[in-house]
Amino acid sequence: MSPSKTTNNQGGNKVTDLPQVKLPAVITVKQLAIELDIEPVRVIKQLMRHGIMANVNQIIDYDTAAEITSEFGYTAKHKITSRVASPHEIQKKKNLSTRPPVVTAMGHVDHGKTTLLDAIRKTHVTAHEAGEITQHIGAYQATINGRKITFLDTPGHEAFTAMRAHGANVTDIVVLVIAADDGIMPQTIEAINHAKAAGVPIVVAINKIDKPNANVDMVKKGLNSLGLTIEEWGGDIICVPLSAKEEQGISDLLENLFLVADILELKANPKQPATGVVIEAQLSKNKGPLATLLVQNGTLEKGNVVVAGNTWGKIKAMFNDHGDQIKKAGPSTPVEVLGMNGIPTAGNTFSIVSSEHIARDMMESRATSTTAPMSLTSLSSQISKEQVKEITVILKTDVQGSIEPIKTSIEKSSTEKTRVNIIHAASGNITESDVLLASASGGIIIGFNARPTPGAQQMADKEGVSIHHYDIIYKLVEDIEKTLKGILEPTYIEVIIGQAEVRAVYTSGKKNKVAGIYVKEGKMLRDAQARVLHQGKVIYQSKVSSLKRFKEDVKEVSTGFECGIGIEGLNDFQVGDIIEIYKQEKAT
Ligand code: GDP
């Protein structure tokens, strides 16, 4: 297999066009050699340089494999592996057995996700004694007719997509909770798009049917209009009306989840060392780091040496969701482990290594990698080399009415060889959830008169997601068309340097106004470009004309400080307005 299937621009700020290799959470040395198209002995030698003694059948984790991959001149990217068997597993197919499905609840706020998870816990988690409360460890297992099902305890698509952005696809089925008295709401649509982007099947729980104004039909029709046709109308979307509060219809939902699980044929090999994902982690005052791990494949055992992200540890003790000490945990089991040397990040994949010595060496050789944004220009250069067939876009607009015309124009730009795939389009600010979705899906964000929230901008910088701003439709469509044709010349993109809030307005000189501001994010710069936002909308764009602290002219003012600012040509500041400083940078 040749590794040069796709390229990306990771590994620095320049477009490097390194060939990309997609790697699973764990891989054997042999399989990695096949992926890199080289002799296994070369991989073994390279591992030795890192102090890792491995044979061809040894399993190494993603971070190690990624490092080796980069040393052979390729860029590694996470292959999302949920139901995909690891190479080791393929070799031992005969050991495969059915594993419980892992389920996440999603939906609009207040539609009843938490109540539903609690109801399932109450009705289908066998407590040892009457009144015993199960532990909250981030996930729990319910049992129905002797079959198990694992629920992740953090509902919502943000947590789900944050995990995907870290390379982990833990969820097999999404339960989309829709309140029958409220119908489809913005976060319902967001949840649908996040689940679709991950390729995870949806089962709809129409909740709150006990309410007098419940309208199940309205929900079904709403789903239909979103392209999710329910079973009774000839589609494949299972809908279960229920009341989480009255604990009605819960068994029906669980049975349907098993039905979908059976179709998915979820398998794992309990006979191999465990691999899986960190669900959550915290520092306990008495016990030290506590991590909840979800075993996805293999069996985790007390005494195993676990490596997860930049942390590792020998498991001193292991607890199930009842708080019982256990010695072994098979596929799809969530467990809390004691013994890690630090707090791993939720979404980190974990694997088992054969000794503490190897774990220590792996930590030493793990360098933090940075990701450069996937921008229109770099996509264009990849398209011209025929390496990208699809551009994944998240579109945010200021008003609902702009979505359809922009979507239609963008989609029309698709050519025979390349396609624009808009995986989510909505009105409103660009949020952290949008950035996570872009990161997890290798997409870009297009903001049409839509601004990122400060948190979203920060996250985009960290995750390497590029946000493109437009205020004219034809310019946006033109750029997309050029990108698709693979001829987009480098352009200048906007980089936000800082944001400040106007706290007071003063008169300076005869009639000029300056704003007393507080720098909330980044910094303020003299001579930089600036815009003023009133109630989230841009009302003025110009340059900084003066920047002063205690009457002294200054070059810059950092976060947390107050200063006075003048904007060229503007005399109409209002308290509460936001001043945004930005610069144009050549897009990579
Ligand atoms: P979440 O934000 O989606 O997690 O929603 P919650 O589970 O917190 O529920 C929001 C509100 O709806 C709470 O006041 C619940 O008591 C109520 N609720 C949840 N499920 C039902 C239901 O089946 N029937 C009724 N009448 N109320 C419900």
Q: Biggest β-sheet: count, sense, barrel? A: 6 strands, mixed
How is the largest sheet built, in terms of strand order? 8-9-7-10-11-12
Structural shape: globular
Distance between termini? 29 Å
Number of strands: 33
Low-confidence segments, given as residue ranges, are 1-16, 81-85, 367-372
Overall pLDDT metric: 83
Structural class: alpha+beta
- The share of residues in extended strands comes to 25-35%
Task: Write out the distinct hetero groups bound to the structure.
Answer: guanosine-5'-diphosphate
How much helical structure, as a percent, in the residues?
A: 25-40%
Output the number of helix runs: 15
CA radius of gyration is: 26 Å
Structure in words:
The chain has 588 residues and is of the alpha+beta class. The strands form 8 sheets. Strands 8-9-7-10-11-12 form a 6-stranded mixed sheet, sandwiched between helices. The protein has a 6-stranded antiparallel beta barrel with strand order 14-15-20-18-17-21. It has a 6-stranded antiparallel beta barrel with strand order 26-27-32-29-28-33. Strand 17 and strand 18 form a beta hairpin. It is globular, with a radius of gyration of 26 Å. It starts with 5 loop residues before the first strand and ends with a strand. The model is unreliable at 1-16, 81-85 and 367-372 (pLDDT under 50). Guanosine-5'-diphosphate binds next to helix 5. Guanosine-5'-diphosphate (GDP) binds at residues 107, 109-115, 155, 207-208, 210-211, 243-245.
